[in-house]
Hints:
Blueprint: H1 23-29, H2 32-39, H3 48-57, E1 65-70, E2 76-80, H4 81-98, E3 105-109, H5 114-126, E4 129-133, H6 139-148, E5 151-156, H7 158-165, E6 177-180, E7 191-193, H8 194-200, E8 215-220, E9 230-234, H9 237-247, E10 256-259, H10 266-279, E11 282-286, H11 292-301, E12 306-309, H12 311-321, H13 326-329, E13 337-340, H14 347-356, E14 361-365, E15 375-376, E16 390-391, E17 397-400, E18 410-411, E19 414-415, E20 425-429, H15 444-448, E21 451-452, E22 455-464, E23 470-475, E24 480-482, E25 485-487, H16 489-497, E26 502-512, E27 516-525, H17 533-547, E28 555-559, H18 572-580
Parallel strand pairs: 1-11, 3-4, 3-5, 5-6, 6-7, 10-11, 10-12, 12-13, 13-14, 27-28
Antiparallel strand pairs: 1-2, 8-9, 14-15, 15-16, 17-20, 18-19, 20-22, 21-22, 22-23, 24-25, 26-27
Amino acid sequence: MGWEPIRKPVSWPAHREPNLLDYARARESFSWRAVRDELVVPGVGTNIAYCALTRHARSEHAGAVALRWLGKDGTRRELTYGELDAMTNRFARGLQRLGVRPGDRVFTLLGRVPELHVAVLGALKLGAVACPLFSAFGPEPIRERIRLGDGIALVTSASLYRRKVASVRSDLPGLAHVLFVDGHDDAVPGSVDLQALLADSSPEFEIPTTAPEQLALLHFTSGTTGTPKGAMHVHDAVVAHAATARYALDLHPDDVFWCTADPGWVTGTSYGIIAPLVIGATLVVDEAEFDAARWYATLERERVTVWYTAPTAVRMMMRAVGDQPPRATYDLASLRFVASVGEPLNPEAIEWGLGALGLPIHDNWWQTETGGIMIANFAASDIKPGSMGRPLPGIDATILRRDDHGHVVVRDGAAVEVGDPGEEGELALRPGWPSMFRGYLGEEERYRRCFAGGWYLSGDLATRDADGYFWFVGRGDDVIKSAGHLIGPFEVESALMEHPAVAEAGVIGKPDPVVGNVVKAFVVLHPGYAPSDELRLELIGFGRKRLGAAVAPKEIDFRDDLPKTRSGKIMRRLLRARELGLPEGDLSMLETAE
Ligand code: ATP
Ligand code: MG
């Protein structure tokens, strides 16, 4: 698409030597065992919370700030590794006193407050399974998840309980304990005052020996393509959290790290709770919802050094500042590394980052199922804008050939890889990395179908170029077949975003008797631009020039916004269903659904 590679090192301020200087050498010498040996302690085994907290609390790092919490109302609270370790010990003890045992499922339904971190890590210490729910879920998704996950305890607030749990509680007979962070309510069965429980429990706790394969976390997928699936993760995942944070996020113990994802999503737990603590960094947690001015001010005031966010947030930041570069208003000199995940990162956004933040944004790719970052642009490696980067050391990724029905081609038990660089196929990973999911809750057959011919199949289509960089084409379900071409919506959306009027675009295929499908785009405009027939024609012409007539959108509709999942992903299946008058499917994950 004519985007020049961004060569490293770029001379940004405060540049320091990155963790992964020599990619090829690191891949050769890497072993999961070596990382595991650093983390695993005799007598404790592999326990995520031990690695994240206790290890530091018993070292000279105990006084370092683990968590810096920014309340909605401007409150600021810091907890050191020692303090957070003691609080989570109390929580584990408290659970124990309630009769919760290793293997039991402990859910949280909380905003981004420190009690959430305490509950997740405390439950992990006990050997219970932690399942953080997104606080904006309505009663239905909450009921479904707690029921599917056999939740025995729920940590929540009085107001969230009243609004979201009370009406479905009678469907959850197994839910024995409700721990309220803000007082308790005798009328609620199993009600426990969390603060009193913590105060009455000892700050000492011996973590029982934890086997690497012991179930640790339950994470539900985003529901972008259908009903969310419950992915099961084990304690050994921490080995991948540590290695990927070091390599893909370039995290060092003296970093101030802000991950903007909510722990209700896998990113918000793997990298918003676990990984930065394992590294020993300071984790910034902001309770408030997105607000561009607040976010810029937070980056400046907290002297954030490493920032992990999502394309949708980047696009909102871009929209909010317009032509005004934030560097003129905010001092972002501390920021040295920016990464993003969750959706394709448009080259336009990377270009914006260079101008506005003075830094390129590093795209990386992974899924709820993979538990950690699998493919990434690294601090010391060149960026090819529009590419997801290269596989992490320890990760074997490839592109598999698919037949006309979209199934991976398997010969003599082995899946067939594509031949030439640039050939499209299914992005696949060689099983065996520590944070790989160990099953979909209650859906064994579906789990089995994720593997073929020796590979884990991601369900995403991609290509790999001659330098080993991977390029996202689209989700298997979103790819458009038109006049014999396979068109990835991302390519079309990115091209449209290069037009100054376009803030965001969602692209679908619309059935057509002649060509199979025509490409249709839904476009959100930047402030200052208004929909008009002239602009529509201009955008169609613009698309044609960039993409050629076969790939460019034939139809364009203007929208005020695009339907998104709660984790901020464009729901193309919904754009398509609405356009074609088809059933809308599972809408529980739609941003605006209650
Ligand atoms: P569901 O599986 O329920 O439909 P989901 O796939 O969106 O939802 P997640 O596990 O949260 O649930 O998201 C993983 C998916 O997000 C990937 O399979 C991919 O389609 C997309 N994704 C993640 N990172 C990137 C990226 N850097 N570029 C392009 N797509 C990405
Ligand atoms: Mg998925």
